[in-house]
Amino acid sequence: MVDQADKLRKMVAKKSKKNYRAIAVTSGKGGVGKTNIVVNVAYLLSSIGKKVVVFDADLGLANVDILLGLKSKYSLIDIIKNGKKMKEIMIDYDKSFKIIPAGSGIEEIANINEPVFSKIQNELNDVIKDTDVLLIDTGAGISNKVTYFLKSSDEIIVVATPEPTSIADAYAMIKIMVTNYKKENIKIFINMAKNEAEAETIYKNLNKICRQFLKKEFKNIGYALIDKNLPASVKQQKVLSKINKNSNFTVAMKKLINNLFKENIKVYDNPIAKFFASIFGG
Ligand SMILES: Nc1ncnc2c1ncn2[C@@H]1O[C@H](COP(=O)(O)OP(=O)(O)O)[C@@H](O)[C@H]1O
Ligand SMILES: [Mg+2]
Hints:
Number of strands: 8
CATH class: Alpha Beta
Number of domains: 1
Shape: globular
Order of helices and strands: HEHEHHHEEHHEHEHEHEHHHH
Bound molecules: adenosine-5'-diphosphate, magnesium ion
Strand order of the largest sheet: 3-4-2-5-1-6-7-8
């Protein structure tokens, strides 16, 4: 498994454009907001002209397409079982935001083993040539299905929430990535915090455990507070960043992008800043 993933990473690096990035979003525990982060970051990146592909790699609970209100005719299952090409199964949210759907129940239908990963990686390689950012929405927890995709990514964002179980599981995930797979480029994102202070404390605690036991520290790539508009947008199958540009979660995703890309998406924390920016052209 290590070999296959390593091969993929090298192939991806060689074939891709200079600025191409593969970023996996993962967590120890489920339900921490990975899919929502991926979908909103993808939307915002595409809105500034990046070509984005979201790879739904949650083979247990694939739901990127559902969150976007899209129906996928085909999925990864068709690549594995029916010899379809990646380009045939991909669906468009819009011209520069495409989705690779995993399909539901893929684990029951297909035996996810090395030859299957190999097939997926060859197909993926074809797609990334025209892509600026590949965002990989992995499942939660440490299974070979999750770790395979993480091993193949240049960058990993681990999402944790203030729940103690989520923090413990995030650490377990980081530990595996560091000790077993020698991953360095890991960043931490705190989601669903009550306030900024809580997010900061959670990050510091998690990083402290990493420093103590792994002798490594990881950057905080951002945080998002509880935003009641997010579950509401999920119910509507709409992307929050599209329908509510000033919602807390939207602003948090813009900051995450700024941190990740040092890209100039304008972020205004409050109307005053926006007002001054409009006057002074900030
Ligand atoms: N910052 C947030 N504020 C409020 N609800 C959130 C937030 N982040 C995620 N959620 C909610 O948590 C649930 C799980 O999110 P999801 O993205 O599906 O998690 P995962 O992909 O990690 O399983 C969703 O119903 C979503 O609306
Ligand atoms: Mg998910």
